[in-house]
Structure formats: structure tokens, C-alpha cells
């Protein structure tokens, strides 16, 4: 029998969620975000791309405008009022200094206690291969936590008035096959569903029969499945990594 999940640490006030695309957070982590903001915690979203390559029937310019707008709406549903888009190209986000610098700048700007990101490992829990955008952004976010605290890394950020922020304590990785912690989302499933449904232009573009197209069914099954390892309480699981 799988080991029960431990409660995710709760002794923090500010989180910065860093992911590759609009909608990444809405496939589960946003339910936890809703619980956190309801408890008075502050959460800011940073999205590496605008999701412009995600809808085959729309040009990247049009898709990017729509998906950016829908992500802002989805964030508001779960109590997040600030969403930044870094402008990296959807589908070909590269791990490297530019991405690390941009995320480090966001960390210095918002001074979070924790980072939240998406699975950066090669595979999902299902065994399916993870996308390079997810892998690269998640890894860069973990590395940027150290970059943000070192004045000699990216000194140009100091010239922009962004002082070092060494205060990131750990990262919470959603969708990780190595999750050992969970967050009680008993009262926030409806918000999570509404946030996912806010991506009303993207969800219909998923392949026919794709499980994520049914927002409520997909999320309800997920929180119930995680809840089996969390005392029967609906939950979203995270891998917690010290940074």
C-alpha cells in the first residue's frame, strides 16, 4: 500500500507560482491555491509563455491574446490578482540564462517564501513523457531560487533595483511522480473547476475524449485519488524540495 501523504508545510505567507503555460496550474494546483488564498496567504502567478502555440486553429498572435486573458480570469477565480507573463516562446522554451534571469527577477520582485511549479521530471505519474517546456521551466525555477539570493549572479538585476532575495525556503512541485505531501482542498474543488473552465478557448481544442476536457470529472477524480493517501480528505499532492 502506498505511503500516506504528509500535510504540506503551512508556515509561510507568500508564494510565487512559476509554470510554462496558461492552464498549467489549473490541472490541480489551483485547487490548493484557492485554499491558500482563502487562508490569507498571498500568491502571484508567473507564466513563462502566453500559450500561443496551443490552439491549432488560431494564429499564435490571436491564441496568445486569448489565453493570456483566460489565464488572468482563471487566476482571479482562486484569489490571485497578479499574473505576469515572461514572453518566452510557447513550445520551444529553452533552459538557460535568460529563463533563469527572468524567474530570478520575479523572485526578487515578489519575495516569496515558497515557489510552486509543475513537474520538471522526465515523466508524469502515468509514465507518459513530459514536455520540454515543463521540464525546462520547472528546473529553471528551482535554480533561480538560488540565483535570486546571490548578488553576484545576474548583477544587472541589482542595476534595476532588484535586491537579492534569499528567502525562498522550498519548492512545491505539482504533478510530480515523487509527491509525498498534500494540501486539503475540501472546500475549493468548485473554484478549481471554475478556474479550469475559464480556459474556454483551449479546452475544446484538446483531442476528442481527452480527460482534461471534462473539468469537473477530471479534477474530482484527481482530488479523490490523492485523498485516498490523505486520510480520505480531498487533496492535491506536491513534491516538496528544499532549495
Automatic annotation (TrEMBL):
It comes from the Bacteria. Its EC number is 3.5.1.-. Keywords: Hydrolase, Zinc. The keyword Hydrolase applies. GO terms for molecular function: hydrolase activity. This is PIG-L deacetylase family protein. Coiled coil: none annotated. It comes from Sphaerisporangium aureirubrum. Pfam families: PIG-L.
Amino acid at each position: 500500500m502506498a505511503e500516506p501523504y504528509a500535510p504540506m508545510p503551512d508556515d509561510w505567507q507568500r508564494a510565487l507560482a512559476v509554470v510554462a503555460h496558461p492552464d498549467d496550474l489549473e490541472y490541480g494546483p489551483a485547487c490548493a491555491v484557492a485554499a491558500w488564498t482563502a487562508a490569507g496567504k498571498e500568491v502571484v502567478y508567473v507564466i513563462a509563455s502566453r500559450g500561443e502555440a496551443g490552439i491549432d486553429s488560431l494564429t499564435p498572435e490571436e491564441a496568445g491574446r486569448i489565453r493570456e486573458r483566460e489565464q488572468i480570469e482563471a487566476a482571479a477565480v482562486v484569489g490571485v490578482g497578479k499574473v505576469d507573463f515572461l514572453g518566452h516562446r510557447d513550445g520551444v522554451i529553452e533552459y538557460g540564462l535568460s529563463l533563469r534571469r527572468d524567474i530570478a527577477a520575479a523572485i526578487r520582485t515578489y519575495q516569496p517564501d515558497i515557489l510552486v511549479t509543475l513537474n520538471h521530471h522526465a515523466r508524469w505519474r502515468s509514465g507518459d513523457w513530459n514536455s520540454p517546456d515543463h521540464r525546462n521551466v520547472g528546473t529553471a525555477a528551482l535554480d533561480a531560487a538560488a540565483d535570486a539570493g546571490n548578488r553576484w549572479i545576474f548583477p544587472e538585476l541589482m542595476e534595476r533595483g532588484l535586491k537579492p532575495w534569499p528567502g525562498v525556503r522550498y519548492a512545491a512541485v505539482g504533478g510530480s511522480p515523487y509527491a509525498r505531501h498534500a494540501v486539503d482542498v475540501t472546500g475549493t474543488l468548485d473554484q478549481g473547476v471554475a478556474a479550469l473552465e475559464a480556459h474556454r478557448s483551449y479546452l475544446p481544442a484538446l483531442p476528442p475524449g481527452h480527460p482534461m476536457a471534462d473539468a469537473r470529472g477530471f479534477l474530482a477524480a484527481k482530488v479523490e485519488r490523492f485523498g485516498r493517501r490523505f486520510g480520505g480528505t480531498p487533496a492535491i499532492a506536491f513534491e516538496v524540495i528544499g532549495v
